[in-house]
Amino acid sequence: MTTAFVLGGGGKWGAVEVGMLQALDELGIRPDLVLGTSVGAFNGSVIADRPGPEGVERLTDLWIEIARSNVFQGGTLGRVKKAATLRPSLHETSELRALLERVHAKDRMIEDLPIRFQCVAASIERAAEHWFTKGSLIDAVLASSAVPALLPPVEIEGEHFYDGGLVNSVPLTRAVDLGARVVYVLQVGRIESPLRPPERLHEAGLIAFEIARRHRYTTTVQHLPEGIDLHLLPSGNAVSFDDSRQRKWRDVSSTHELISGAYLASSQYLAALRS
Fold first, then answer.
1. CA 139 to chain centre
2. What is the DSSP letter of 246?
3. Do 225 and 193 touch, CB atoms closer than 8 A?
4. Per-residue pLDDT tens for 231-266?
């Protein structure tokens, strides 16, 4: 039975997936297939490259490093204003690429990973989802993580890619299509956080965006084929995706709390499965 880890997108909230991976590894649950979107592609690439405790420990250290670094910090208000008028993004990919190059060898190829790994991005030219199944691991993760306006599109072989969350935020469909029978979904809290009608102007956009991100996953669950053992791991954190906190994408001060909360909640969930 093929066991798949499906890691969804979510920017700084991706720290919760680290806690989930800690809980899975502690119980000896290992994947045959790892699928990722955006920050889930980043997290998943480390686990696929370094299976077992080594990968989990490395990923934990990376997120602690992220919390201390300026990967998400950006620049001054003047830089933001200049970026808004002179280029299509607030940041370049150099900081994220440098981080990935400390994790993976520069020439690391997807097809050479110990665990089968794929990640998704949105093709601009084709207006379609694109799955990276071979080629440069770093380029693929950068493409999957290219959040519009925050990061520029990533060009690969003449095609330009934006964040995979635009087309498949929690890629359960891919796991089903590839024949996974046991699926652990690692998500940043979106699926378990209920939405409500907007009360303020900025909430309207956030809530509309959340509906767009979630609908494919919820539709897939409703029509899931028989015989698939699906586990949605709990985030263990009270994260709301319809308020102004979502605009504070650079604030990673809660990284430790996100990891520990997800670890505790997921450990309890997995222990209950075995009891």
1. 15
2. G
3. no
4. 999 999 876 666 555 566 667 778 899 999 999 999
User: Contact at 8 Å (CB) between 122 and 95?
Assistant: no
Burial of 228 (0-12, 13-18, 19+ CB in 10 A): middle
Burial 172-201, CB ≥16 within 10 A → b, else e: bbbbbeeebbbbbbbbbbbbebebeeeeee
Helix (H) and strand (E) counts in the chain: 9, 8
DSSP class of residue 225 equals P
Residue 77, CB-side half-sphere exposure with 13 Å CA sphere: 0
The string of pLDDT tens digits covering residues 156-199 is 999 999 999 999 999 999 999 999 999 999 998 878 888 889 88
pLDDT in tens, 36-65: 999 999 999 999 999 999 999 999 999 988
DSSP string over 106-167: TT-BGGGSSSEEEEEEEETTTTEEEEE-SSBHHHHHHHHT--TTTSPPEEETTEEEEEGGGT
Distances from the Cα of 84 to the Cα of 74, 96, 209, angstroms = 13, 20, 21
Is the pTM above the cut of 0.90? Answer: yes
